[in-house]
Write a structure and sequence with these properties.
It is a single chain. By secondary structure, the chain is an alpha/beta fold. The chain folds into two domains: 175 residues, Response regulator (Rossmann fold), CATH 3.40.50; 172 residues, Rossmann fold. The chain contains 14 helices and twelve strands. A seven-stranded mixed sheet has the order 2-1-3-4-5-11-10, with helices on both faces. A three-stranded parallel sheet has the order 7-6-8, sandwiched between helices. A two-stranded antiparallel sheet has the order 9-12. The protein is globular, with a radius of gyration of 21 Å. 53% of the residues are buried.
C-alpha cells in the first residue's frame, strides 16, 4: 500500500488552503449560534485495513446523528491510509459547508493542518480515536489508548508468568504516524519493561498493515528461534499477522495479544490461536462523538472530562478479552458480535468446548 510522505501531505494541505476559502466563506458556515437545522457533519476515517470503520464506526455514528437531528446529514469519507487523500477529503467537506468535522487521522502530525484550516473557518474539529498532538482540536473522544497498551501488555506478562514461560517478548506496534499507536506503545512498555522478560525486538508497523507485521515477525522467528515466549501486538490486524508468521514457519504459536475485538480475532481467541484482544464497544465512542459534534453544531462548547494534548477529552475504559470471558464480553447481551457469526463451521468444536451457543 502506498504510504505518502509528510512532504506530499503538506503540499496537499497548501493546495487545499488555497482552494477552499471562497467556498467556505460562501457557505455561511459557522460553528456558533443558531439551531442545527439541516447541518452537515463530516466523519473522516483513516483506513480500510481495520474493518471496524466500515462495519461499525460509520453506521453507528450516522444513526446517532440521525436520532439527534433528523435534518442533519453525515458526509462520510475513508482515506484508505493515504494522508494526502485525507487532506483533500477535508477540503472537500469544508467546501460543502460542514459545521463540524470528526476525524480519525491517518497521520496525526499532518492532520494538524486540517485542524487549523477548519478552525479558521469556525468549524469545530473532534479528534476521534487518535489524538492530534500538534494542534488543539476542539474535542477528543476515544478509549484510553495508553491504558489499552498497559492492559494488553500486563495481560500477556501475567499469562507468561502463570505458565512459567521462558524466553523473551516481541513487540509489534502500530503505525509510527499514529499518535494513538504511540500511546499504546507507551502503555505496553509500562507493563513489559519491568516484567523481567527480555524485550527481544520491537517494530512500528507502517499503516498498521498486517502483511508488514507478518513479514517482520517472520524474520524474528528465524533470528530468535526457540526464544520467543510471547508477542504483544497493538491491534488484531498486527496480531493476526504475527500468528500467520508462526504458522507459516511451522512453529508453535506463543500467546499473542490484539486490540479492537474484530470478528477474526474473536474466532482466533475461541480457537486458541490468539491470547487476548481489547473490547472497545465502538457504539460508545461513535455515539459520544456524534453527540459532541451535534452540540458544537448547536453553538455549544462541551467541557471535557479530562484533557489530553491540551484538548478537552473524554476517554473510555476498555475490557481485556480472553478465552475465559469472550462469550460474556463479546457475545453476551449487548456484546459487539453475534455467536452465529463467530461460531461458524471451522470454529464449531471450539465454541462447543466453551459452551457458546
Amino acid at each position: 500500500m502506498h504510504k505518502p510522505s509528510l512532504r506530499t501531505a503538506a503540499a496537499a494541505a497548501a493546495a487545499l488552503a488555497a482552494l477552499t476559502p471562497a467556498a467556505a466563506c460562501s457557505s455561511g458556515n459557522s460553528g456558533s449560534g443558531g439551531g442545527a437545522g439541516n447541518a452537515k457533519i463530516a466523519f473522516l476515517m483513516p483506513d480500510i485495513a481495520s474493518t471496524r470503520y466500515e462495519l461499525y464506526d460509520a453506521p453507528l455514528f450516522k444513526a446517532k446523528v440521525k436520532r439527534l437531528c433528523g435534518g442533519c446529514s453525515v458526509l462520510y469519507q475513508n482515506a484508505g491510509a493515504d494522508a494526502s487523500k485525507q487532506q483533500q477529503q477535508a477540503g472537500s467537506v469544508l467546501a460543502q459547508g460542514v459545521k463540524a468535522i470528526v476525524i480519525d487521522p491517518v497521520d496525526s502530525a499532518a492532520a494538524a493542518s486540517i485542524v487549523r484550516m477548519a478552525q479558521a473557518r469556525k468549524v469545530a474539529v473532534i479528534a476521534y480515536d487518535r489524538p492530534i498532538p500538534a494542534a488543539k482540536a476542539d474535542y477528543y473522544v476515544s478509549f484510553d489508548n495508553e491504558k489499552i497498551g498497559a492492559m494488553i501488555g500486563q495481560s500477556l506478562v501475567d499469562r507468561l508468568k502463570q505458565e512459567k514461560a521462558k524466553g523473551g517478548i516481541l513487540e509489534v506496534n502500530g503505525s509510527p504516524t499514529d499518535a494513538a499507536a504511540n500511546l499504546i506503545k507507551k502503555g505496553v512498555h509500562s507493563a513489559v519493561d519491568p516484567s523481567g522478560y527480555e524485550l527481544l525486538a520491537e517494530y512500528d508497523t507502517p499503516n498498521w498493515e498486517p502483511a508488514k507485521a507478518q513479514e517482520w515477525v517472520t524474520g524474528q522467528i528465524s533470528k530468535f528461534r526457540g526464544r520467543i515466549a510471547g508477542v504483544v501486538a497493538a491491534n488484531d490486524g498486527t496480531g493476526g499477522g504475527a500468528i500467520a508468521a508462526f504458522k507459516a514457519a511451522g512453529a508453535d504459536v506463543p500467546p499473542v495479544t490484539g486490540n479492537d475485538a474484530e470478528l477474526a480475532a474473536a474466532q482466533r481467541i475461541v480457537a486458541g490461536d490468539q491470547y487476548n484482544t481489547i473490547s472497545k464497544p465502538i457504539r460508545i465512542v461513535a455515539e459520544a462523538a456524534a453527540d459532541v459534534a451535534y452540540r458544537f453544531v448547536k453553538g455549544e462548547r462541551p467541557a471535557g472530562k479530562t484533557t489530553l494534548f491540551g484538548t478537552p477529552s473524554e476517554l473510555f475504559t476498555p475490557t481485556v478479552v480472553t478465552r475465559d470471558n469472550v462469550g460474556k464480553v463479546l457475545l453476551g447481551p449487548g456484546g459487539a458480535l453475534k455467536t452465529a457469526d463467530v461460531c461458524t463451521a471451522p470454529y464449531a468444536a471450539s465454541c462447543a468446548e466453551l459452551g457458546l451457543k
